[in-house]
Amino acid sequence: MELLTSASAKAWCEAKQLFVRREDLARPRLQFDEGAHAIRIPVPASALHAVALAYVIIMTGVIDDDERNVDGGLIWMVDWDIGSDTHERVGLSLLSAMRGASGGDVLERPCQLFCENELAVLHTALALPLLFQWDAFFVPISGEFIAFASHDGFVDLTFRSRSAADEARNRFQQGKWELVATD
Predict the structure, then answer these.
(1) Collapsing DSSP states into helix, strand and coil, what is residue 31?
(2) What is the pTM for the complete model shown?
(3) Which of 91, 146, 167, 173 has a CA between 20 and 30 Å from the CA of residue 105?
(4) What pLDDT, on the 0 to 100 scale, is given for residue 181?
C-alpha cells in the first residue's frame, strides 16, 4: 500500500481518464468525462453485510470472480469526521492501524493505492467508510468504474459503459443486494 497526497491521487485518476471536479482536493468529486452509467446500493445496517458489500464492490469486473485477478485500486478518503466523537475515534484508530507506522496524517495523505497482492488490506480500507459512514472513493486499477461511499448510507457505482453497468446490476441483483432506481 502506498499513501498518496490528494495531488498525487488526482494525477493517478487523470491518467485513468477520470476527472476530479472541484478545485478543493480535500472534497473532490471523481467522474468520467462523459457517457457514465450508475447504480446505487444502500449500505446494509448489518456490519457483516457492509463488509460483504465492500468485497462485492472490489470483485466487480474481476475476471472469473477470482481473487487472484484483483489488481488493486485507489481509496480516496474524502470526509471521515461526520459521526459522534465516540464512533469516529474507533474508526480512525482502525484506519491508523491499517495504514501502519508510516501512515502519517490522513489529512496530508488521504489516499491509499493498493497493489494486486493486497486484497485483504484493500477490503479493510473499503469496509471502513461503509461501517463508519464516511465519504470515500474506490477506483480499481483498471479505472473502469468509480465507487463512491457516502455518509448518507449508500454507494454509487459509476461505470464507463452501459454493458459494464448492466453486468454489475445483474451481479448485485443475483446476490440479492438492494438497488435503488438508477439510469
Answers:
(1) strand
(2) 0.90
(3) 146
(4) 64
Question: In sequence order, what are the residues at sequence separation of 6 or more whose Cβ sits closer than 8 angstroms to the Cβ of residue 91?
Answer: 80, 83, 128, 131, 132, 134
Q: Side-chain half-sphere of 171: how many Cα atoms within 13 Å?
A: 20
Cα distance between residue 174 and residue 88, in whole Å: 34
- Rounded to whole angstroms, the Cα distance separating 94 from 99 reads 9
Of 23, 1, 47, 53, nearest to 157 by C-alpha is 53
Asked if residues 132 and 153 have their Cβ atoms less than 8 Å apart, the reply is no
Tell which phi-psi region holds residue 36, choosing left (phi > 0), alpha (psi between -120 and 50) or beta: beta
Mean pLDDT of 89-107: 81
- Residue 25 CA from chain centroid, whole number: 16
Residue 125 CB neighbour total at 10 angstroms = 24
Cα(123)–Cα(117) distance, rounded to whole angstroms? 12
Helices (H), 5-112: 6-15, 47-59, 85-99
Q: What is the pLDDT of residues 139-162, one digit of tens each?
A: 999 999 999 999 999 999 999 888
